[in-house]
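Journal club prep, notes for RB
We'll compare a predicted complex against what the paper describes. Inputs for the fructose -6-phosphate case:
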Amino acid sequence: MCGIVGIITKKQVPICSSLVQKLKLLEYRGYDSSGLAFLNKKNIKVCKSKGEIKNLEQKISAKDMGNIGIAHTRWATHGKPSVLNAHPFLSDDKNWAIVHNGIVENYLELKSSLANVNFCSQTDSEVIAKLLQTNAPHILALIDVCNKIKGSFAIVAINKLDNNTLFVAKRKSPIYVMQSSDEVIVASDTICFENTGKDYYTLLDDEFCEVSLDKIIFYDKTGKVIKKSKTLLKKSQNKFSKDNLPHFMLKEILEEKVAIKNIIDYCQNNGLKKINKSLVRKIKQIIFIGCGSAYHAGLIGAKLIERYAKIPSTCHIASEFRYAETDIKPGTVFVFISQSGETADTLANLELAKGFITIGVTNNMHSTLSRAVSICLDIMAGKEIAVASTKAYLAQVLMLYVLSRHLQNLKFNTKVDYLSHVLDLLNVFEDIDFKKLDDIAKFVANKSEVIFIGRDLDYYLALEASLKLKEVSYIPSFAVPSGELKHGYLAQVDNRTCVVGITTQKNLHSKTLSNVSEAHSRGGNIVVCSPFDIEQKYLKIDVPNIDNDLICLLVAQRLQYLAYRVSVIKGFNPDKPRNLAKSVTVE
Ligand code: F6R
């Protein structure tokens, strides 16, 4: 969702440029508008822009010197993307400026409590600034406002009477603080701290702080001072460059081999050690929870765990499960899958899982999820900058595969050498005919709709392939289990439709092919993604025949690349698809 940063520096610097540099690191969290505010000759100066951060960059002046400022990159929830709706917002007396991430659920009620106050935006966030009616630069003013808010927030504020303090608040939206010898940074992602310092503070829900160069004071929601300790910043291998490739999405697909190697290392170095025999004896069932691609990875995970470890497993969409009133039996283990570890819908289910063993599968070991679960598995895919998930999804699936085999070994006292399968996979991972995929992408790009079909694991791959394609190419698309096609969905098929059949399992191959042929007979344009032979009249995406379930990863990689190419052919930027944010921190 939105990204937030605040900076105080020891010396006067071109503050707008410093803020914009940090904001660029957060752009993956939202990019429909951005803005900043800083103290300039005792007044708060604001600059905002619609669209990507480069538009804001063009508006700022390098001559504007300062030592304190806040900035925000927005992903619209309340009010369309526009300059007026971009943050920061000013208090009525213009003493305060705030940036906010989250949702003020009772903003209409709060707005109506403010008689004679003019609002200039359609956002829920502006009410926070307008509620700051005392000009005294003190955290108590912010605490007082936050105690009136229903919903979620990470807020950073400045006050024009104090050029040495950032005021910070947090509930259900992440915010972190790092202090080095000559600057302090407050940010919604620790990505902003790289190359700056070695440790940082994490605010928990309903915690507040006053941050200045020489001291950081934390408060609870009653205004009482509290003590907090620091967390070491994990050294990251992240490079925020495209390595001369045209897009991050392509770079990240090409990095999948490294992600696979990282998981092999992780397992060889005992990364799964906390999942031991005594834990396995307690497990009666596993419930997987995730959203979007993470949910699709969980579907595969649940199937594999039933297949290998014979533990009853189900996977649920996070935003549905929390309201499903499911009876959770003793012996249930929850597995939360989230590359960002900050997805609000997923985190909301932690409440339901209280008292049960919880396992997190994440790409962010600094996240709320990693702190909340009993055991956290690090998928180590490296930072994903492209908004649509590729290497993180693939690493999630692989982690769940190794988890299923690890549980199998523990439960049945076997010694299945599953890592040798993963190593075999690496040998063929780059046997991919990009040229042929480019041609198929051209074929797909001018179709009016794309339907992905498959059975069993192939259906789960179809779901993910369809999500990826529509996310970045905007071609209407859905996925359906092959056998269901004839139960109504064939109505969608005509000569403008493309049907992509995924068939990787020998025992189901002929079944899926008959469903493909039902679509073909109705004029559908057919592409088949398979390691097996098919009729020549269909276009084919070849997949090496590795004869085990890891073939999923080969299919995922090819269909991600297909989505990427279709997006590029249609003239879109696959790294920043419309209406999608990397880390969805609102419900
Ligand atoms: C799809 C995509 C989203 C995320 C979903 C969950 O490409 O990126 O569907 O998978 O928003 O995000 P995380 O994994 O961060 O919980």
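Talking point for the session: Residues 291-294, 338-340, 343, 346, 388-389, 467, 471, 583-584 surround fructose -6-phosphate (CB under 6 Å).
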